[in-house]
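An example makes the point: we let one protein speak, the chain in one-letter code, the fold tokenised, and here it is:
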Amino acid sequence: MKHTIFKLYYFLIATLCFCTSLPSFLFSPLIILLTVSSLINIPVKKIVQYPTLVALILLYAILGISFFYSNNLSNAAFDLEVKLALLIMPLALLPMHRYPLKFIFYFLKYFLVGLLISICFNVTASLIQYINETKRISNGLYTQNIGLNYFLSARFSKFSHPSYYALILNIGFIVLLYYETKFKRHFKVIAQLSIIVALFLTASKAGLISFLFITLAYVLIKRKYRMGISVIAVSTLICFILINMTPEFANKFTSMKSALLENTDAKTTESSASRILIWKSSLELIMNKPILGYGSGDVKDLLIYKYLQNGYFGIAEKKLNAHNQFLQTQLASGIFGLLMLLFIFIQFLKNSLKNKNWMFTFITIIFFINYLFESMLETQMGVLLFSFWFTLMGIVNQKLSLQVNIKPQLTFKK
């Protein structure tokens, strides 16, 4: 019976890794099955041996406490439901500690396969939309001309927000850099090129900043300067093509420059400019209640009220969140929630560096970079990505720390 459950658990983990870049509704049944299997397989008290996993649960507990001083209890209850994976994922993935490291890293291959399938699907779906629109226009049945913009941003990323998809793509790029598989060299190069192209097609500024950091850091650490030059050349070519063929791509970065150098229009809803207005409003609210925050249920209403008070009618109409996870957490649960979130990042970064695990070091950093521009823990997909990867990293780092007689390596072989 135990052997059957063990095999079932392995299959569920592999499927979860495969589905990471696919529609988020696939996660829920998998996590439920994993949690049930986990409770059968292992005592819950085992989790105390993994402090970083306990930190994820404590973050959820702090956010749960903020429920009790929220005025809008329905919003607060919904927020706890969205963030439930912070509590469940560490328990669901805990039995992974029984697997040897080579088996755990083998799960990464399933993740890569799922990611490449998602890229193929997104490109194919965008191509079909583009061809259908061209036919309608030629037949006089359609006047709107989206054209090649079908391959850009939200129109390209079919399963998730472009910023989230860019984060997943960057994780895939890191895994291909540091995880030694039996993939043939030419296949690995094709996979890396596919990820780079898809990353630019998301047009996510945080994603591209993360990609630039990953590339530069990898080149300097590994001293692979030719590889760095190749990636920069390919990226420049992709950028040049997109700027000349899709005006929407060029506009995104032109508007970012304008937002940084010029006065921001209070009525703007443009991505970069609106963030500046949002951050100003968030900081004003934080200064009034820095210790406990406002409660997880009231943040959205208070931000909208503050936008209107400041005359930022464009972002008020769109009901935008803080677009910075650290500000969002501070607003909801005060300094305690913020410190716990920062502790998680610092602890994971410290453990990864201690084990010379550059793969997980970079994954931690790109999550941090994305959290500077997005409130990713406010959506189910964002919480699932965070809780899954940080639980996986917590288990692996703990196993590496316990292997005191084994010299940690920069890359991990299957």
About this structure: The chain is about 70% helix and 0% strand. Confidence is low (pLDDT under 50) at residues 404-414.
